[in-house]
Write a structure and sequence with these properties.
This protein is α+β, with helices and mostly antiparallel strands. The protein has helices at 2-12, 39-54, and strands at residues 15-20, 29-33. It has one domain. A two-stranded antiparallel sheet has the order 1-2.
């Protein structure tokens, strides 16, 4: 998971962390955040991050959520 977290941080300038399932070695919950002057730009960045995560063949994405708080 470190590869995904660091890769997303370096490529897209997002904040990233493992936020769930730290006690399981076969599962991880990752969180990503970005700040932007426009919602549209933030959506573009997060879409790129999501595609980046999905690009790892060893990863099975079970769900993805976005919150605009």
């Amino acid at each position: 998971m470190k590869t995904i977290i660091h890769g997303a941080q370096n490529r897209y300038g997002v904040a990233a962390a493992e936020v769930a399932h730290q006690d399981k070695w076969q599962r991880a919950g990752l969180g990503f955040a970005t700040v932007s002057a426009s919602a549209g730009h933030a959506d573009e960045v997060m879409a790129k991050v999501e595609r980046f995560v999905w690009s790892f063949p060893e990863v099975e994405v079970l769900s993805s959520e976005r919150d605009r708080s």
